[in-house]
């Protein structure tokens, strides 16, 4: 191992402290105080801003009246992954941004924390609020184990259909299990939530079963009455530079997955000087976690300004207060190395021209690094998915779907990151799965007899 890359930079106690819950849950008195701040607006802007349409004033009112179970039911009826979304949803850009309190005081009602307060006890205690519907005699194959797929599977079970979930990973949950910063979802909550979703019954989980390797889209269409595709994006965009495969250039998503599954985080190799290329949530997550693992210097380099970053302003501020330095207007131009491993990156300065298009300036700077993380987005690995690419209409490299998440095939739906226009948000993926399930139900029963209409 390189001299500046080592495990055990921090001891177990330090790492445990660094990876405590990012936003500790509210206690009952705190929840009541926060709930009392809600104006219970008619035609509430927060509800309209929620991708899953949760009745936010409704669930907050139930907290005030000590009806936590009813509050959770209001949330989970629209968003079965309301517990995880309470932890990872960018509420500051959705429901809380449009909260009337934000306009009046600059401080919104803490909707995310109230949502977590309402759902945690129900999910942790497996208090089942939903029932499997009367058996329809129809079967649906769901490909993928992430939020879109699990949301679709749960709603289909509520509607009485038999569901088989095919998941390529060893654990279900998708990016909720493998791709989220460890301090955002602690105590194995991702698996607790998955267990709650599957406990409704009528859903068979087949792990380590991959589309294109163990089965094909054509075989699923022959065996099942309908198919939902929610396999996400398995590939990471390349930097497009020479020697990109050199030692020390690391896929940020892969490293986060290893960190999430590590029994002892102190065993992970950590660089002294870490450089992250990208501007989205993954870039923030990998940068902050490396800092919390003991890296001395962590720098994010992004080719545009802070306003264009995919990460929210709250996340950018969080990275800064965590000791991460973000440098803007830098486009990677060349990897620097000793011939065997990376030791830095040469960047070219950029700017926006009068048409707001990115322009190179011809000026350069170099940043030293022991590890360079790639965090510039993901793509669908079509070459690994068998007949899927040839079978479906695509748009910008992803699956084209209509408003009901139906693909170009009459019996196939899709949702989550693999569809065109996917927002890379758990809450958006959950809505995709829900809408698809309702349309699948209409298809299976005939629109006149749909339970989901």
Average residue-wise pLDDT: 94
Beta content comes to: 15-25%
Order of strands in the sheet with most strands: 4-3-2-5-19
What form results from the Cα inertia axes?
globular
Backbone structural class: alpha/beta
Q: Determine the N-to-C terminus distance.
A: 59 Å
Poorly predicted spans:
448-453
* Total of domains: 3
Let me know the CATH homologous superfamily of the largest domain: FAD/NAD(P)-binding domain
Q: From the 3D coordinates, which CATH architecture of the largest domain would you assign? A: 3-Layer(bba) Sandwich
Fraction in helix: 25-40%
Largest sheet: 5 strands, parallel
**Number of H/I helices:** 17
Number of strands: 19
Please identify the top-level CATH class of the largest domain: Alpha Beta
CATH fold naming of the largest domain: FAD/NAD(P)-binding domain
**Rg calc:** 23 Å
């Amino acid at each position: 191992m390189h001299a500046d890359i080592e495990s055990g930079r921090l001891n177990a106690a330090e790492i445990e402290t660094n990876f405590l819950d990012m936003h500790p849950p509210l206690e009952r008195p705190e929840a009541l105080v926060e709930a009392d701040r809600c104006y219970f607006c008619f035609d509430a802007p927060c509800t309209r801003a929620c991708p899953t349409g949760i009745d936010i004033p409704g669930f907050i009112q139930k907290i005030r009246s000590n009806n936590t179970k009813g509050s959770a039911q209001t949330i989970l009826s629209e968003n079965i992954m309301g517990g995880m979304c309470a932890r990872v949803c960018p509420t500051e850009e959705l429901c809380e941004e449009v909260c009337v309190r934000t306009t009046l005081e600059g401080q919104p009602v803490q909707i995310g924390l109230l949502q977590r307060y309402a759902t945690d006890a129900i999910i942790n205690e497996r208090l089942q609020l939903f029932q499997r519907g009367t058996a329809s005699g129809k079967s649906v194959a769901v490909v993928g184990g992430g939020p879109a797929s699990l949301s679709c599977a749960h709603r289909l079970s509520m509607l009485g259909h038999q569901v088989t979930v095919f998941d390529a990973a060893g654990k279900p949950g998708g990016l909720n299990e493998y791709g989220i910063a460890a301090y955002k979802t602690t105590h194995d909550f991702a698996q607790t939530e998955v267990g709650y979703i599957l406990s409704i019954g009528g859903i068979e989980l087949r792990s380590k079963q991959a589309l294109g390797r163990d089965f094909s889209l054509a075989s699923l269409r022959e065996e099942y009455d309908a198919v939902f595709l929610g396999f996400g994006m398995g590939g990471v965009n390349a930097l497009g530079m020479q020697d990109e495969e050199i030692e020390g250039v690391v896929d940020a998503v892969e490293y986060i997955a290893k960190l999430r599954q590590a029994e002892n985080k102190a065993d992970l190799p950590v660089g002294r000087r870490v450089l992250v290329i990208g501007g989205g949530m993954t870039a923030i997550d990998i940068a902050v976690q490396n800092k919390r693992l003991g890296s001395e210097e962590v720098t994010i380099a992004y080719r545009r300004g802070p306003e264009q970053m995919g990460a929210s302003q709250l996340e950018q501020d969080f990275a800064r207060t965590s000791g991460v330095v973000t440098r803007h207007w830098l486009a990677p131009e060349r990897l620097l190395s000793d011939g065997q491993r990376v030791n830095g990156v040469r960047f070219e300065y950029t700017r926006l021209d009068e048409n707001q298009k990115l322009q190179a300036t011809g000026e350069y700077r170099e940043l030293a690094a022991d590890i360079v993380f790639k965090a510039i987005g993901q793509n669908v690995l079509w070459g690994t998915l068998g007949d899927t690419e040839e079978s479906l209409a695509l748009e910008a490299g992803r699956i084209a779907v209509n408003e009901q998440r139906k693909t170009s095939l009459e019996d196939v739906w899709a949702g989550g990151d693999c569809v065109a226009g996917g927002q890379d948000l758990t809450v958006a993926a959950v809505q995709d799965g829900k809408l698809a399930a309702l349309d699948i139900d209409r298809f299976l029963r005939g629109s006149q007899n749909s339970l989901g209409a």
